[in-house]
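Researcher: Next sequence.
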Amino acid sequence: MSVLPTVAYLTNPARTVAETQQAFSDWLSFIAQRMGGAAESELTIASGAVTPTTGTHQVDTEGDAASDDLASIVTTNLSVGLLLIRPVHADRTVVVKHAAGGAGQVMLKGAADFSMDNTDKWLMLQRSGDDWVEVFRSYGTDKATARLDAGAVGQSFSEVFAVTGGSANAYTLTLSPAPAAYADGQVFFIETNHSNTDAATLNVNGLGAKAIQFRGAAIAAGTLVANRRYIGQYRAASNSVEIVSPHGLTPVLNAVQTFTKPQRPAVAASASVAGDVTLDLDVANDFPLTLTAAITITNPALSAPMVGQKGSIVITNPSVYALSGIGTYWKRSGGTGVPTLTANCRIDYHVVATDRIEYSFSAVEA
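Model: Next structure:
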């Protein structure tokens, strides 16, 4: 292990040529041990250990095995600084072991082993005493592995989702490669295979069922909808999976909610109409209509979820065509009979039952 000469070593007039040459040699060797100070070279694991000589190395398995554990990085040649390593071959996985014990052990974020199975996976380590402490890791293009450690190592990927299994309110999730354990902050990207009917749990790779929560409380029926995507995060404090990004989460229907922006009803596309007009209250609340002839408003198809729905029919009628009739569901407030249309008018309605719509008619100033 080379170290830098002490301060003022070379300015001492008593230094011999040999001492000066040795100081420069130590200086160059020290630089070569740092990241970027020398070309990337290859190390081969021997009995679970490697001995780096520079700041950047490729690592190969012992005997070209398909997989090999890297439990110790010998500190003999590197006194301080950073070390950057990656596998030498995509077909030979280097498994960096967390806290294997002894001098040269590696302390990984998330307290879990890191499998490097491609040449674009990197691990940066900082020497701390006799240990190596993880500073950074790169997954290259492998988002599938990255998502397992998102919370533990500060990564975040949204491209890859895993579809849940299970039934009723017991969801399961199978990830490959599998996480060794739940870790605080760990993120799961999921797509639900069914909707929940009550409070629910998520069991990842058989590690144990954890309550699914939203805003710190157990989810209500219908919170998770089949074939939609969600992002959940494991919270050690509550031993639960918190839905942190709804990604299509349905409203919480059993709790009062305060909206900070206007909640606007759906408006149907503007339509030119004549003859029988049947409104689809399942797709919109408000209906802008331009009359090209007399019309009859028929009974719409109503279902239980529509009871309580309110909206308006805004009628533009420059030629003052008539309303020839209106369906039996429509019950006028403040008057009887079919209203007389004007050039601009509006029908405001309220669905009060699956066979009754109460409405009021008003002419609108041009």
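Model: The chain has three domains: 34-140, 162-245, 271-363. Residues 150-159 have pLDDT under 50 and may be disordered.
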